[in-house]
Amino acid sequence: MTTTYSFGVEPISCHAWNKNCTELAISPNSSDVQVFRFKNGRWDMYDVLTEHEQHVTSIDWAPESNRIVTCGADRNAYVWTLNGSKWKPTLVILRINRAATCVKWSPLETKFAVGSGARLISVCYFEQENNWWVSKHIKKPLRSTVTSIDWHPNNVLIAAGSSDFKARVFSGYIKELDEKPASTPWGKKMTLGQLMAEFSNGGGGWVHSVSFSSSGNKLAWVGHDSCLSVVDASRDMLMASIKTEYLPFLSCLWVTENSIVAAGHDCLPVVFCHDDNGNLSFVERLDIKTEKAVGKFSAKAIFQSMDKRGEREGTGSDQDTLHQNAITQVAVHSGTRDTVSKISTSGIDGQLILWDFKALESQIANLKIV
């Protein structure tokens, strides 16, 4: 079962949910962030976050502290706190000279990480003495733009994908903030910036998205070479990679300890399984192919539709998928990190779609989330 919401014709570059999914923040591919509240069966916009001067590249919403963090091409990040019915911004000192590309709260919400085109990661935390957000940098051996970030469940390790074709795991340990971390399969030494592991699938595609599993022992990433790769740190860094028939994926997400959902330029989410033996395999696409009903339209309606979508005569672009253009992000909607029951996808078509796994498993014969 799917639920589709349309937010106009502008692309949705990124989105984030509050704790109980009654509120939603999206960026319509601009410098604004629109915040919606679900009321009477529809999404009503109640605030617009306008502090950024260039387009917003990433949003994350901390569920427990109810704070939003945004970053953008203007090289800035802001932490937003709710004051009455309006969100108030606080500037973060990132100290970068290129666009900020991705941002993610840590699991304990005490800090967040920002990737950028400056070939570094800013680990940001609140300094009580000076009452501001400051950052410390992770630089080496990054050699290109950091495109994606994810946190390990231990609140210290950071996975980063970049356009130098590599997925890496760093330590984001902040001495003034964090307790000394316990040893993990990724390693023992965890000083800030310590490179724990570095991987490449050998295919030569820049990395679009990285994701830790719920245990933190597995790392998945997708690249522009249409590959999905998984490394299991608990099995001596055993790596599995699968070259798919699909166009490149832009986002990936673990929905159980063994199942991954990936989506991107093919406009549909796809499920993969990484089993206990370390084998990676295709399971099924979530989107059921649908036949488009052909109705009678006036000539005026046809030309209006072509004009809206920028089409020429005879070049209809209707897809047999729910999303009519590339999917930009896959996010958790309902459930815990180890058992996700619903995901959301946003796309360039201006749509946001909810996917209910339990209902979809009953509709799609080969679909099984394990």
Question: Ends: how far apart?
Answer: 18 Å
- Spatial ordering of strands, largest sheet: 1-28-27-26
Order of helices and strands: EEEEEEEEEEEEEEEEEEEEEEEEEHEEEH
Strand content: over 45%
Task: Quickly describe the structure.
By secondary structure, the protein is mainly beta.
SSE topology:
Elements: E1 2-6, E2 14-17, E3 23-27, E4 33-39, E5 42-49, E6 56-62, E7 67-72, E8 77-83, E9 86-92, E10 100-105, E11 111-116, E12 121-127, E13 132-138, E14 146-151, E15 157-162, E16 167-171, E17 195-199, E18 207-212, E19 218-223, E20 227-232, E21 238-243, E22 249-254, E23 259-264, E24 270-274, E25 280-285, H1 299-309, E26 327-336, E27 339-347, E28 351-356, H2 357-363
Antiparallel strand pairs: 1-28, 2-3, 3-4, 4-5, 6-7, 7-8, 8-9, 10-11, 11-12, 12-13, 14-15, 15-16, 16-17, 18-19, 19-20, 20-21, 22-23, 23-24, 24-25, 26-27, 27-28
Structure overview:
There is one protein chain. With 370 residues, the protein is mostly beta strands. It is 5% helix and 48% strand. The protein contains two helices and 28 strands. The chain has a four-stranded antiparallel β-sheet with strand order 1-28-27-26. It has a four-stranded antiparallel β-sheet with strand order 2-3-4-5, with no helix packed on it. Strand 23 (259-264) and strand 24 (270-274) form a beta hairpin. The two termini are 18 Å apart. The mean pLDDT is 92.
